[in-house]
UniProtKB/TrEMBL annotation:
<feature type="transmembrane region" description="Helical">
    <location>
        <begin position="42"/>
        <end position="65"/>
    </location>
</feature>
<keyword id="KW-1133">Transmembrane helix</keyword>
<keyword id="KW-0472">Membrane</keyword>
<feature type="transmembrane region" description="Helical">
    <location>
        <begin position="18"/>
        <end position="36"/>
    </location>
</feature>
<keyword id="KW-0812">Transmembrane</keyword>
<protein>
    <recommendedName>
        <fullName>2TM domain-containing protein</fullName>
    </recommendedName>
</protein>
Length: 72
């Protein structure tokens, strides 16, 4: 299934919003980690969980998970 240009742009915007929310969350979480406990960098767990989600979301935006319709 080929994505229309409008659908590709819409999906791209959604992925960019997801990425921006993740980065903003990390901008809050990292200083919070250093205030609460400098010894243990627990913000890395958030990063480790969020990166595969953003990667999967990017693949979705490119149409990687869309099924092809037969005859097209």
């Amino acid at each position: 299934m080929h994505l229309s240009p409008e659908e590709r742009l819409r999906r791209g915007r959604i992925v960019r919003k997801h990425l921006m929310v993740g980065l903003l969350a990390l901008l809050v979480i990292i200083p919070l980690n250093f205030i609460v406990s400098r010894q243990y960098p627990w913000w890395l767990w958030v990063l480790i969980v969020w990166l595969p989600l953003i990667a999967a979301h990017s693949l979705w935006a490119k149409g990687f998970f869309d099924r092809r319709k037969e005859g097209m």
